[in-house]
Amino acid sequence: MADRSFLTQLRASGGPSHLLLVLLDRHRVMTTGQLARATGAPERTVRYRMERLRAANLVECARPGRESGSAPRHWWLRPAGARLVTGTAAAEGRPSAMFATHAAAITEVWLALTEHGPAIGVEPEEWLTDRAGWQEWDGTGTWSRRYRLTPDAVTQVLLASAGSAVIFVEVDLASMTQTLLKQKVVRYLAYAADRAWLGVHPHCPPLLLLTTTATRAATFVRAAQPLLDQHERAYATGDRAEAPVVAACGHVCDPARAIVEPCWMLHEAAAGELTLAEILTERLDAQAESEAWHTYQDTVVRRRADLDALGDLRSVSGLADWLGSECAAAAMRAVVGDDPAKFLDTEPNLANQIIDWSRVRRKIGRFEARDLARPLVAVLEDRYAALWTEQARRLLVAEDHLVAAHPPLCRLAATLAAGNLATSAEISMLGVPPTGTRRRLQHQAYDDYPARRAAAVDSLWQAMGRRARRHTSQEKLAANFDKEHLLICDTCELIYPKPEQDETLFDRCPYCDGTLLDWADRASIVSLTRRLDDIREHLQAVSRRRCAPCAVPTRTDR
What we know:
InterPro entries: Replic_Relax, WH-like_DNA-bd_sf, WH_DNA-bd_sf. This protein is α+β, with helices and mostly antiparallel strands. Helices cover 54% and strands 12% of the residues. It is built from 23 helices and 15 strands. The protein has helices at residues 4-13, 16-27, 32-39, 43-55, 79-86, 97-116, 178-193, 214-235, 255-260, 276-313, 319-323, 326-336, 340-346, 348-361, 366-396, 399-404, 407-417, 424-428, 438-446, 449-463, 466-470, 474-485, 528-543; strands at residues 30-31, 59-62, 74-77, 122-129, 135-138, 146-149, 153-159, 163-171, 207-210, 246-249, 264-266, 273-274, 486-489, 495-497, 516-518. The strands form 4 sheets. The chain has a 7-stranded mixed sheet, with helices on both faces. A hairpin with a 3-residue loop joins strand 7 (153-159) and strand 8. It is rod-shaped and about 155 Å long. The N and C termini lie far apart (108 Å). Residues 551-558 have low confidence and may be disordered.
């Protein structure tokens, strides 16, 4: 009968005996010697504790294949012991001799890795056996079902100064035919083809088989080679971290040699025999290479998408309506400019705000987009004021251009005086000396007009009688001729003779793209001097914070 005080002590304080139960729950079957090595206690002490646990109906043991003699006892949990550790338990059962031997062999691999791995820079971090290590996933095909890969163990190890790697461990005690072993490779390759390891493991874990002899290991590797070649032809992506790796050795009876010696045969015949550390190092190198490649690809693709989003904003119709602000729309176009990449690099925070809003804008309505853009609009309106102020000051200190008063400068002044932002090309013009003056362009525009006007006036004057001459003058005749034959640009004030009847009429200034007005309407034109005065007044108002960023009153507005 179970000792109630002993059971109470196990439940309340655990202790060495409870640790033995935990080990059996993790590894299913362990020998007395394995329990002693795992706990660091003498084997005699472990044997005594296990007998007490057995007397409490928490564990049971057997000598697989022989129930007497000096063969080691193989221990496993009974339902009461499992409930004590995990709270649940399967029905009572007795493992077969083959199962117990196989489970103990898996445990021996774990012990060998724990005892000898740190010496070669391989530190075990996690060990999962049986169902805890099974891999389940849904196939990627149209009619695929749920698949399962059932390695004997899955272990995660830490390589010194390299990182964590994952291994699928298979243990073969010569109880499986090569056909069954080949089927394990087929399931493993299906796991790799569906990339079921993504999000679970850092790389495709290698499948390592420990079997009884080197000959049996070599046969397994040779049988796996055609399957791996076929997989590579069908699924190769160039990413080494996705490539499956199969290796085998013949030291299942002495797994310590499998941990430290170069005994692993890979499916690649030219690889020779490698150590476990070399196999894991290759996996970690492949993982690092893959991460670098994916990081680069993600960066390039994300950057390309960001640049496309910024570039698309320049052609969005009604951008001011989407933002609810003319100033914000103008500032957005100005900061993005003709080089979105430069803007993204120099002002990533503002650029990302604009990009995020742009992407969400496509999925919502206009009014929702305005509400969402309010914080961004406030930033852009402040930027508008700063940009306008900077452009205005650059214009006012460009003495050479102001003296030349050439049409592009007049257009720039008209733009700023109206409260608008100039383009980068218009502003960059101020950085180079002017190539011409308004006076020279006016002379070219007149061409032979003064001579034609003088001839026409003289002809009219000669044709007039003495009485008619008393009521007019040649100056009036010239003024009437100008009214009939001249056009003037409303921006740069260049004067153009009207083309002859057989020539094509034009209504835009070829130098500043201003509107050409009839000579009689010239009084409505705002001069360059007045526009510069408006800009100076607005600069003072902005500095005193008395004027809205985009409201620049012109003299024609007053």
